Amino acid sequence: MKNYLKTHCLLAALALLGVLSSLVPISARVRAEEGSKRYDLLLSYSSLQAMAAQSAYSEGEWLDLFRSWGVDKMVLGEYSVRRMSSNALVPIYGGSVQEIRSSHGWELRYPDAVAAWVAETDELTDTLVIVEDDAYTPWLLGGFFERVEDLEYRRYDEGGTTYLFFGRQSGALRGNKLLDLPVGVWPELTALAEAHGMQVIPRTETVDGLNGAAFARSFLNVLDDYQSPYFLNTGDSLLGYDDEAGETLLKDYLRETGVGVGMFEQNDQSGNLDWDGFPELLEATGYHAVRAFNEWPYIQNRYAYCGYEGPEEITNSLFRAVAERNCKLVYLTMILEPDNDVSVDADENEWTFITDPDAYAQMLGDLDARLTRLGYAHETVRAAELAAPSVLWCVLEGIGAVAAAVLLLDAFCFLSARTRRLLLAAGIAFMAAYTLLAPRASQVLLSMAGGVVMPSLAATWLCRRTARRRREEPEAAFGKLLAETLGTLAGAFALSLCGALMASAALSQLSYMLEIDLYRGVKLMQLIPIGVFALAYLLVFAYEETGAKAAVLAHVGARGEKGRARRFAGYFAEVMEQPMKLGWMVAVFAVAVVGVFVLAAGAYYLYRTGNTTNVSARELALRNLLENLLVARPRTKELLIGYPCAMLFVWALRRHMNFLPLLFGGGMTIGLVSVVNTFLHIRTPFLMSLLRTGWGLLFGVVIGAAAVAAAELLLRLLRRRYKG
């Protein structure tokens, strides 16, 4: 090892420089994450309303209960005429002329003047709105005229009821869009929320064609009136994005007020809900955004789930969203009875809810307790602030990645000193130029370089070190061998951790932490190191250690001799002309079968890699147990496969086995790659990933030591039996 470092001191020093440089952006990221340890709960009024109707408590009593459990914000959606028409408690309803005329005896329901308006028009999309309590007429008209320009209407009042007829509308108003236009938060709901100590978070829904500057200006005024700390977009497009003036209004408002943009996580946890122009909006406002977790129906339905008796699994889901996936806002919906149908085409109006207050008290109390232990505070969330890594640190890290890549190539090709220097110079020049000319694209390349090269270097180094130790000491006492497995694992783990630091440092910026930008190279990074290990294993143990290399060199000559390539081609042709014996044919067939098995296993491995909600109840129960005991659940790939296989790999080679080490080495490489993959979940706080990796190493070493001891005992028993 000393001779190797002496020969490759420049490359090793530059690789170390790259690793140390990665600590600068990582330390800035950690400070940003630790400074934004807050979370907030936003109560869904519509969900609470549905649940309260099935319970023995009124909406106000439920609000008092939630307020006592620490929930002080409630989301209220703006009402359109269509939505008000379906609510029996709101004295406003309406419809299009076509809808009114399709009802039998409609003329008798309205005053003669109003009936004449409906009868005389030839536009079926004209709209009639009835306000049964004219005290709300100014509120309704104010909403309409703030959000729609050049709106024409006729009015008729009788007995405290106001009739509003919007006739002959043109352009964007055609097609009954006026009925779907949100006009404001229902005043009675605002009064209800404030009476019970709840801050209102207003939410609107955009309507294509009516989503211009006027609509945006009106709703932004609503946000100001309610002093909302969050902007939650809903609908088919971003607020105001029907015209350029509306886009500018939204961007300016978010920049000037600092209101956090709520970004709702998708239900499969693979990113955020998105709209056209959303990434550009966030970039223009300095990524002043907060990830939000929507309690999707399949989460609401996890009461008495996975062996629990109450809402424990829902609490687990909320905890993971906040602590592991950087969702600082939780959109809180009510708990469903286990027998509800929550499929996509299910009827929400038929859902039945858990109406026991103790269930909600337990869920929220346990969530607060678990997050408090991690240092989170339950309060209004401010968006994290983090500057992008400077070009200097990116260039230095790139130099380290290039040096590590040259080291890896040299481990296979035994490059001359001159070749190593030329490759290093060319790689550094390319990486520096690419970083300066294409900084965003270079971050992905830099991350992939560190994440691929270091685990590959670890696996290759492990093969060569073990081969050298086997030559130097063919038979080793078990105690010494066990210590050797631990030391070798420590070295391989350190190299992979260096790769994890380099890979995550390049992506340690808000766009990745908020999952606005998604890193797409994870699956590729999973496979490449496994392939490199297979090549390294064959090179070392099937070529060099078997004497095949010496035989080839005896035929073709030493490096640098003239005609070496020609002699090698001739020797290879002679080998290919040799008849194949039956044993070799069986061996080739066996290798083909193993290859198919490996491909199938690799496909399943890639399928299980990444974000997925497709987890069995048994696996979920194990995850929950580890989370509750350790806070950060170690990855099963590492503690059950990677680290034990690394120790068994060294043990099997030192005990002069041939086939088993290849299998153990595949599992070992999966573990080494998993170390990097853990830190590529940039949305997860860095210290959480570090704790998870530490637990995985600790338990993996314990399991690996037990596995090596058991394997040694079994080997001795077999040897004793067959010798006897």
Please give a quick description of this structure.
The chain has three domains: 367 residues, no CATH class; 236 residues, TIM Barrel; 105 residues, no CATH class.
What does it look like?
This protein has 724 residues and is of the alpha/beta class. The chain folds into 3 domains: 2-31 and 387-723, no CATH class; 38-78 and 189-383, Alpha-Beta Barrel (TIM Barrel); 79-183, no CATH class. Helices cover 60% and strands 8% of the residues. The protein is built from 29 helices and 12 strands. Strands 1, 2, 7, 8, 9, 10, 11 and 12 form an 8-stranded parallel beta sheet that branches. A 4-stranded antiparallel beta sheet has the order 3-4-6-5. β8 (230-231), α12 and β9 (260-264) form a beta-alpha-beta unit. α27 (636-654) runs antiparallel to α28 and α27 packs parallel to α29 (686-723). The longest helix has 38 residues, at 686-723. The model has no long low-confidence stretch (mean pLDDT 87).
Give a topology summary:
Blueprint: H1 2-7, H2 9-34, E1 38-44, H3 45-52, H4 59-68, E2 73-77, H5 81-85, E3 92-96, H6 97-101, H7 112-120, E4 127-131, H8 137-147, E5 154-158, E6 161-166, H9 177-180, H10 187-195, E7 199-203, H11 213-226, E8 230-231, H12 244-257, E9 260-264, H13 278-284, E10 289-294, H14 297-300, H15 312-323, E11 327-332, H16 357-373, E12 377-378, H17 391-413, H18 417-437, H19 439-472, H20 478-506, H21 510-513, H22 522-544, H23 548-556, H24 564-577, H25 582-608, H26 617-630, H27 636-654, H28 659-679, H29 686-723
Parallel strand pairs: 1-2, 1-11, 1-12, 2-7, 8-9, 9-10, 10-11
Antiparallel strand pairs: 3-4, 4-6, 5-6
Helix pairs in contact: 2-17, 2-20, 11-12, 15-16, 17-18, 17-19, 18-19, 19-20, 19-22, 19-28, 20-27, 20-28, 22-28, 27-28, 27-29
